[in-house]
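Review form for a predicted model. The reviewer records the input and the model, then writes brief findings.
Reviewer: anonymous (R2)
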Amino acid sequence: IFGNTAIYIDETVANGALGALTDKPEQLLFAFLEYLPLSGLTSLLSIIVLALFFITSADSGIYVLNNIAAYDKSTSSPKWQCLMWGSVMSFLAISLLSIGGLNVLQSVTLILALPFAALMVIMCYSLWQGLLTDTQYFNTKLSTTSIYWDSKNWKQGLAKILNQTQSEDVISFMKTTALPAMYQLNKELTEEYGLTARIDKHFNGNDASVELTIEKESMRNFTYGIKLVTQEVSDHLIEDPNIPHITESTNAIPMTYFSDGRAGYDAQYMTREDIITDIIRQYERYLTLSDDVGYDIMAHDAEEAAE
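Model under review:
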């Protein structure tokens, strides 16, 4: 409405006076209102509306700057920081307006928006990483081997959780728990059921592993192994005084592995009997696949290995 009215007044009453002010929009509005009734009141109302608009926009800008500059997003920004950003923005706006008017302010705003555009791209990437972390957090399940815990051995389970395992601990677990379990099961498989099975063991530092293999002629051999795997520990866990048992930058865990390349799981919470039970469960799965669609895959792998 005002736009059409301004064009009409400029062509019929003002004789182009309003058109001459198009490069000075901060003056054009009030010059236009002079041609309408109650110009003093409408000018005051316009100033109030413009002030509310700029204050609202500045408040949003201060909020965004506070979030970008804040170290801890979970807490409110301090009042002095809000005042600082508000003062900086006001000082820059007044300085630019006094130097070259609204055109200079708009030009500088566009120029300064370019670095923020790059920053927004980085923030979008950070948001994506945050969403991935959030998904991983809520999809993380209980440890596979924690199913073996019960009310009788809760103290042993708690002790293993609250002790940071290193390479020597994993090797000790392999020698005292995993290897005896495999020997016991291997004896049963060979002497009672006549199967061809063997045990391989390596205790060479970070390459330590033990595995039980049950051989087959026409299919891929069944292999159940446990190897030493190291994992990085976050710095904030090491520095947290409420978690005194975490002092090393890495953890070492005994991780299971299989001949078909499936992802393994942490076996440190298992006892000898648990390991024997778990091997039998995996062997039962192997036999089920041998009698199902998995036979074609395992037979093909066995032929390739023979060639």
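Findings: Residues 79 and 263 are 51 Å apart (CA to CA).
Further findings: The first helix runs from residue 2 to 12.
Recommendation: see findings above.
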